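Blackboard transcription, Thursday session:
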Amino acid sequence: MLKMTAARLGSAVPVLLLISVVAFTLLRLAPGDPALLSVGMEAPPEALAKARADMRLDDPMWVQYFSWLADMVRGDLGTSYSDKAPVTDAIGDRLPITVQLAVMALLFIGIVGIPLGVISALRANKLTDQLIRIASLGGISVPNFVVALFLVLIFGWWFPGIMPYQGFTPIGEDVVESLRSTLLPAVALAAPQVGLVARLTRSSMLEVLSQDYVSAARAMGVRERVIIWKDTLRNALLPVITVLGVQTGFLLGGSVVVETVFGIPGLGRLLVESFAIRDYPVTIGVMMFIAVVFVFVNIVVDLLYGVINPRIRVGYASGKE
Amino acid sequence: MTTTATTEKFSVHRADEVSLLRRLAARKISMVSLIGVGVYLAIALVGPFLAPFDPAALGDDPLAAPSGTHWMGTDSAGRDVFSRFLYGSRVSILVGFLAVVFALVLGSLLGMLAGMKSGKLRDSAIMRLMDVILAFPLLVLVPVITGILGQRDLAVGPLVIGPVVLIAMAIGVVLVPVFARIARASVLAEMREDYVTAVRSFGGRSRDILLRNLLPNIAAPLVVQAAFGLAMAVSVEAAVSFLGLGVQPPGASWGTLLADARQYVTLGAWWLVVFPSIAVAVFVLVFNLLGDQLRDELDPRAKTTTRKRKTSREGASK
Amino acid sequence: MTTLEADDRPAPQDRGEEVLRVTGLRTTYEFRGVPVPAVQEFSLTVRPGEIVGLVGESGSGKSTVLKSILGMLRPPAEVEADEIVLAGRDLRSLSAEEARRVRGGEMSMIFQDPINSFNPSWTIGSQFRRMLALHRPDLRRSEYDDEILRLLKEVGIDGRGKLGSYPFQFSQGQLQRIMIAVACASRDLKVLLADEPTTSLDVTIEAQVLELLRKLRAQRDLSMVLVTHDLSVVAEMCDRVVVMYAGRVVEVADVYDLFERPQHPYTQQLLKAIPGFPHDGERLYAMRGAVPRLDAEIQGCWFADRCDSKIGDICDTTRPELYQAPDLGTVAACHRVDPAAAAAKERSNS
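(Written on the board underneath:)
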């Protein structure tokens, strides 16, 4: 397991480096002279030159890249143009809110999507199955910001006062109210993914149900209920878990629109706000942060997959001995 | 389908394509999605000519509910939503289409280049770059790309690339990995087929194999993905424009219509939300359905995997 | 090719009552919403200690028969039968719960592909233990592992230290032996259904597994239904043979008669298609045509299209029943075997 973790982490290094190269390139291509922005438009040329030297902007590109990379590794994502505060501080403020939102959405996806898929597979080609499949396809097709707008329309105009539809209550202030304030956004964020997970669970269940070992369990006289919940579901969920992992990354990205609609001050909102005022260090810093999180989430998913799948776990152990 | 057993692989494919439309039409769901595609195409082509009002003309009756004169009501500036909708539909569909063409060409080229040299540096460099694009949050990557590319006027020869094309290209960039992965996987699968080995054993060069033999045979999964990609591109455009980072006002697209609608939702201006929402959702649904049906009909890999598995089991007898 | 010697086989006919009797079995699958009959008018009897072969091409419904008998098919598949009697009890009258206890208890099944017969995410030990928990109430939990090791030893596998291993860590041959051990774990086992148990194994392993099955039959007086499309396995293993074509029985014969005096043209053509049997030196026979679609509307004999020895219009117009062949224990679904039809043909010729 340890070896597997190390191997998987090692394989992520080139991707992480490439992410940093892309981010650095975007940053340098972005309009705006960082030195000019830091000293202000009216500063004398000497001050500007000094700032340039301080910020090492006169060094060759590759030197700049490596000193920038060294900063990144130390956890310094740069400084905002607008309020001169470290980007990491801004991320630190906003991240918990987005995580709360993403976790709720993920729970929603799992709790609704997986059972729907299982029911659909067990009633394959019956009316229930058809209805679930149509609903899933419909769900996938409606973009999450459309769902969000309709939720605002429903709870903001038609039935006001039932659920909060604007703004965010910090979890430190009032736990229940905080969870309520992220409920509708989480539903909007999750809705398209629920359909996806239901469809995937269905096809994966059907695939596993047609396997010989399910027949063999039946031939042994194992109870049908046990066959479905113990023999089938565990193996059928392997691909679903992989997709859920990938979706965690998309949830972080997808929260951009949903946070905008519901006025939630999370990471996504930070991205949009900073880009709107062309505060590129913040925008690209946050983007890079999300990309790195995405890579690590995928590693965790891979490792989880290994924990569930003995072939990988044991194969790794015995193959290396 | 009547193809004799001796017909070679390529002509079988061509025969498939000729009757593809007819076979799709034979299925109820495919029929529905084909009709949907037709309606959207018609709106994109002739929609603006049917607009009853100038989409930019300000009216004196702001936020009016749908009526006989204003079929979809009016917006906060009194503009006719139906006319804006018709003009906006053309922009949205055009952006989606251009983005997919861009991603399809670039993605399948990169994917094939990677697949031909699988395991080599070129392969891993290309595919890691694709991973990186996927890792960035796409809704922000798109405006960052347009923001950076749009600093100076871009031109290809005499053609100046306008903002709409720029957005389409940026969306295309984030879709490239999807096509690259599929093209690579298809190439890897095809390279193992006997006919590629045969061409090689005759001394065929890998570039010729790629262009003349591989491309026709990996086209099916790419076409299928193009349908899904179109659905995705349109919803990305809508999201980005909705955030105010895509198509800029006063230009209209489904996304900007929804962005206009946002502040007035809680005032009950449902017509501003409902019509563009339905347009986006139905568009995505129609192309997802089409993709599903196309995959059933012509993706040889989706079909042969089940067939192969079966025959290999039967054939294992001796 | 194994030589056939009729006299070295036990004579199970003399031992009376059959242990399994199936009549009028009809199994229907659903394909794109349309019911397709996979097996029709199927009957089978198995006597104690007897190995009955079930032979036919791929898709002739052999495996479906086994799954139908064991009650493993789930809707939309539909199984109807006049009777499925196991040791005097009609399985169709049992409650779902009782029928479940029969599976793996009195009647077990082994499959074609041993690696896929085990759940890939569970250890061999845990899959074996669950069989004991279901069908060995005589054992306490603490005795399970000893019993597993004993059962594995019976099939020639030293299981010590391997119960915590996963299926993929064993070879195909080992897995099939383990599967046999699992299937035979119940003390009440009367009939073992084997669905092409050696098809995915290589030849030497195949011989070992067949030898193991024969040993079990001798030791425990097990009856078996052996599905195969390999006639050499039939010759080596079976006492009696049921030949299937397109979901129906075309011939039932003692193994010796089957090879020496096949009655149905399909059986004859099958035998001619075996390399080196029985006419050495001749060009190998290849059967023309293909099995008709199961949902085809066919008036006459289902084999008429591919038959080399049709006797006339009757083959295309009237469906043959199973007729008793003269001087033999064989029955065959062919008008040539029916004395009445043959007589009628005589008459029209003269």
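Lecturer's comment: Chain A has 13 helices and no strands.
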